[in-house]
From TrEMBL:
Transmembrane spans: none
Transferase listed as a keyword: yes
Biological process, per Gene Ontology: pyrimidine nucleobase metabolic process; pyrimidine nucleoside metabolic process
Keywords associated with the record: Glycosyltransferase, Transferase
Coiled coil: none
Keyword Glycosyltransferase: yes
A GO molecular-function descriptor: thymidine phosphorylase activity
PANTHER family: THYMIDINE PHOSPHORYLASE
Name the record gives this protein: Thymidine phosphorylase
Entry GO terms, CC: cytosol
Amino acid sequence: MQTLERVAGRWFSPELKDVCSETAAGYWLADAFIRGVTLSEATNLTRFLAGPPAVRYQNRTISARRYPTGGISEKQALLLPPLMRALAHEFRWCSPFLVAAKLAHTGGTRDKLAVIPGFKIASAAELPIWDGVDRPVRYFSAGTELCPRDAMMYRIRGETGTVADTGLMSSSIMSKQIALPADVIILDILHGPTAFLQTRLEAEKFGIMCEMIGKSNDVKIVTKLRKSANILGRSIGSSTELVEASELLRGDIRDKSGQREITTSLGFIKTFAKELDLDPEKVCKRAEIALNNGEAFDAMLALFADHGADHNYIRSFANNPRNTVLGNLKKTTVLASRPGTLMWNAVSIADIANNIINSYVQNSQLSDTINQGGIELIAQDGTQIQEGDPLAIVYGESSETAARILSSAMTIT
């Protein structure tokens, strides 16, 4: 730990940020990525990244959250918080939900929330006065304000292609959990072709490492493994994923992929209940009622209001989420060039959404301001299509450019 402070402290210091420091940090990360980071090294790196001891919030309720390792079109961070908020007062729980910016090919929840006018992620400065009763679910940024060193390393890992090392991943993720603790933290570990961890074995090893780091820092970690073989849902991109999540909570989407997302949310709710010594069946049944009677969607609107979203926008969203979010955006429909069986390249589609459609706004005074838009997939993998069939709708200022490039992200055989 002392060696890390002496050698790497300058590299990851926001106050001493310069080109030389970032270059040195990049080389150090590349070396760590190539040789691999051991458990003992990851434990020390976690503490180094977390910084000073955490500021405890004055919660009068039990606290729980779920944190993912990253996947394409992963929308649980838009679905689970409203559901938890709908049940918060009844079961006396709160959730300090952490959200991060996009990393590599995965889209960040912070970027998805940024398309909501007026929406502000809660500041870490709120923590000492947040009691978990008033506004029981809060979105906090897993960024510079919470973990300055990790925020810098997070960005450099994305720029240098040093993301998918188990030790570096566990250190980064666990530093945030230590900086903002909760009574129960579920790590949603995705594995497969569209995730950072490719195999179940990698995911299991990663989970064990995180559990051990958590244990050494008095943070309870519960790991859940989830396969991420392709796109998790039917849309990719900040605006379209927000619409898809809202339509799932409203019950507008009843297809197989939508039901999988809801089942996943209920699974997390059940695990929270079990770990918090509540009746899992009772809590799950109550969650299903909240989904069916509109409470969960109302809780989404309440979350928007809690975070300062524009009141007129919320009213419009309550009546018609799709029209509110997508109605004024340019759109381009992608048509099949020939008949056959369609297969999408999920990583390529994600890169188009992240880098072309949802790119950061040039000359913006706000670093988290992004261009609105996204991609809705009309035809799913394995669909038999005919020439001229609509395959996808691309929304946003760059929709025409993105639609042209999208043809390279599919195969028709």
